[in-house]
Amino acid sequence: MKLEAVELIRLNVPLKSAFRTSFSSVNVHEVVWAHAITDVGEGWAECGANDRPDYSSEYHTGAMAVMKQFLLPDLFKLGNDLTAESIAPTLFWAKGHRMAKAALETSILDAQLRAANTSLATYLGSTKTRVPSGVSVGIMNSLEELEQFVAGYLAEGYVRIKLKIEPGWDYEPVKMVREKFGDDLLLQVDANTAYTRDDFDLLKRLDEFNLLLIEQPINEEDVLGHAKLADYIETPVCLDESIISADIARDAIELGAAEIINIKPSRVGGYIESKKIHDVSVAAGIPVWCGGMLETGIGRAANLALAAMPGFTLPGDTSASSRYFETDLTEPFVLVDGHIDVPTGPGIGIDPIPEIIERFAVSREWVRA
Asked: Which of 6, 87, 98, 239 stands 20 to 30 A from 245 (CA)?
């Protein structure tokens, strides 16, 4: 097929409540969408970059700039030879910028699959029609507030709770949740690199709470440090920010640094690379699960298709639209008996609602061949 144009849409979507991690607190989901126009149809995707380079080195304004100045010109040059599978090899020369690359690849993959009347789930080899849904709980102002939020999410039916932690907000919150909600609760924690090798004894204290995993406790570049931590504590160590490709995943597994892997498509350059990481992990007997970046329905739909692959054996962060937004930009995803249905329509299987886009759009810019 041939890429004719891409519309880059900046949106500011209010969150229902502030979401705080060890590196930021946000009240508005500031996001960029890529809307690809090809000669066989259109496709949609959400860029995972935050408004600031806090989770990774990418940020949404920078992602837009690199797409316009470097990535899109190369894709336009492919002419009729464009396929979603050709994008990563074409853009390989550009170091990093995986979230920008993922947005373009996914929007073109969506157009390609819609034209073929094939769902993303089918393309990826997914086997489930619905996936269990966990919820990520941000850092709170008090234990009482945390208890209230966790109780609310469990009442809604979420099957797993993930607590964001940081130094000073770790042992006591985890202890409270475990004691209040029982040993049967599927519970895990996410540090977003907030600790160092000097904190191993502190992190070992969390072993007593029988956690599913501790996610990305130390710096993403310290893969060896994670291997040392995995040997030191009983709680399984899960890598998130460290895993940027299938090759890195393979190395981390061989080093013993990754007992579980969180696959975020935007972090690794798209769904094609995500499938490769899934396959590497399954071959090594390593469980995987699907993380998230506060996605609207456009990003959430694609993540659900990925989370339905057979190696995703742990509940992911593919929560309902109502977890974050009063109003989603697509038909909302709804939690039913702790699960969310995987879209079955062509491509990502869902479309944005034009009038809601207009309500939240900050800017819309066309880049043409």
From this structure: 6
